[in-house]
Amino acid sequence: MKSIFQKITIQKVVKGLRYLKHYGWKEFVIRLQEKMEAENVPYEPWYEKHKAAADQLEKQKKQAEKWKDAPKISIVVPLYRTPETFLRGMIESVQAQTYGNWQLCLADGSGAGDEDADPKASLVQSIANEYASADARIRYECLTENQGIAGNTNAAIALADGDWIAFMDHDDLLAPDALFEMVKMIRQGFHDEDGLAATAYREAGNDYEMLYTDEDKVDMDGKTHFQPHLKPDFNIDLLRSNNYITHFLAVKRSLLDQVGGIRSDFDGAQDYDFILRCAEQAGAIGHIPRILYHWRCHKESTSENPFSKQYAVDAGKRAIGEHLKRLGVDAVVTPTKDMGFYEVEYPLTEQPLVSIIIPSKDEVETLRKCIAAIEKSSYGNYEVIVVENNSCEDTFRYYGDIAPQETTVDGIRCMEGKLAGGMSQEQLAELTETSRQTVSKWESGESIPDVIACDRMAEAFGVALEDMLHYEEKNKSLPLPPKGKHMFGTVTVGARGQIVLPKKTREVFQIKAGDTIMVLGDEAQGIALVKADDMIDFVQQALKMANQKDQN
Fold this sequence. Notes:
There is one protein chain. The chain has 552 residues and is an alpha/beta fold. The chain folds into five domains: 2-38, no CATH class; 69-298, Spore Coat Polysaccharide Biosynthesis Protein SpsA, Chain A (Alpha-Beta Complex); 354-416, no CATH class; 425-475, 434 Repressor (Amino-terminal Domain) (Orthogonal Bundle), CATH 1.10.260; 512-550, no CATH class. 42% of the residues lie in helices and 18% in strands. The chain contains 22 helices and 17 strands. The chain has helices spanning 2-6, 10-23, 25-36, 43-50, 54-66, 84-95, 119-134, 148-159, 178-188, 199-204, 236-239, 253-259, 270-281, 310-326, 364-375, 393-402, 425-432, 436-444, 451-461, 465-469, 503-508, 532-551; strands at 73-79, 102-108, 138-142, 164-167, 173-174, 208-218, 225-229, 249-252, 284-296, 332-335, 342-345, 354-360, 382-388, 405-409, 412-416, 517-522, 526-531. Strands 1, 2, 3, 4, 5, 6, 7, 8 and 9 form a nine-stranded mixed beta sheet that branches. Helix 12 crosses helix 13. The longest helix is centred in the C-terminal third of the chain and has 20 residues, at 532-551.
């Protein structure tokens, strides 16, 4: 019990109340249970095991010194009243890189030059100048005014003269091998580790122009790591749903010049907008599957309080919308209940034929369920191809029910038929003069259609209303017959050839115990059962009509 209460802080209580207000009780309870459960696989030991060891870092330094075509990486950071501990930690994490050809560009919007400046602003200026004067690779500019995150970032970009521009927040940390791994991947667009030309990118004209890494979060002390974000390789559909790239991002300077800098119109999602614009133009986008960036989380951080910046959600929606518009893609963007996640709905402009291939062998019930599920689809232009694999004759009898037209093509037995479904809920709703919601309830079994709806469906499908109203579930595999025609199911032939007529058969044709049945046969059509009395009456009527014709 003590360990549970140790996890509870004022900040977490406040965050929990926000979560409750936004998502409701059900999601809140689920989230609470997740937070209180112990991690199945603790992250910290995993991180310590997989991060670059000291000997590996020394090896990287020696290897990087031998690279002759190594690009300069300019890391741009907008500063704004950054706490001293965080600022020093950020700068020193860059200085600790095993790759040395870097540049750190700091643009400070803290307002140190104002008469009413906060003491924190002067402290930021003092610390930045301290590091810049000691390390020529660090450039610092104290801006005359705070231009916002977009403007401050652009000011930092203006200080950069590197071949690549990398983006970093003022309170975060880089892993010591971050730049080494990035340059290593950049070089692989030209050479492999043995110095041989890797022509795959160059011949296609697709050298890397955009790179990103995996990341995790780190506490305020910069010592405890948690919530790793192991990202996939580049996925445009995922990117349109969520800015999964975020940190650590680097783009080629020529690409940045092509797409333009950070746009203040999208403050709150300015990085999302920038990434989408770069992704549209980049020749090749690389993902480095290593934790190389540590995102510091504290109580003022948006990552810990996503509900504090609703405007960021709106800006993200606009960023995706403009991205789609630039590409000429007609789609609707909608934020989901999960902050920072979006749903992109693309209109269906055409209906190409979809071929669904199902391998089958003696799994009638499974196949029946599969086809029934397909028939519920709202998309109508499809075909189902069942690939048969030496099933027994009972299975072929089922095939005969759903595909009665049989042919032989190149010695292969082929059976064709039309599925009973293929009608959307909207189409059936229009047919029965009801709503789509009503049809959906019919399908789920929540309700059943009334007689009027059944009559309309019977007429449309060409079946008898009586058969539809009294259709037995156990015979659901049998297709509904046309009006006046009946399919009563199957009967078992006894050892002496005897059969039992189903009850419904006897009711429809008024067959009673003791009635005489005449058995007729046609080798081409099969066996027919006719009541003897009816047959006699039919013959007598035929004879009578013949005699009358002769007399005339």
